[in-house]
Amino acid sequence: MGMLQEIDYLPENLLGLKASQLADHLAGPTLIHLSGRRVEPLFVSVLMHGNENVGWEAIRALLAGYQGGKDLPRSLSLFIGNVKAAAKGLRLLPGQPDFNRIWCGSELPETAEHQMMVQVVERMRPRKPFASVDVHNNTGLNPHYACLNRLDTSFLHLALLFSRTVVYFLRPKGVQSMAFAELCPSVTLECGKVGSTYGVDHARDYLDACLHLAEYPQHALTHLDIDLFHTVAQVKISPNVSFGFSPGESDIVLDPDIDHLNFRELPAGTPFGWINGTGLEVLDARDEQGQEVTRDFFAIEEGQLCLHRSVMPSMLTKDLDVIHQDCLCYLMERYESHL
Question: How many CA atoms lie within 13 A of 306 on its CB side?
Answer without folding.
Answer: 13
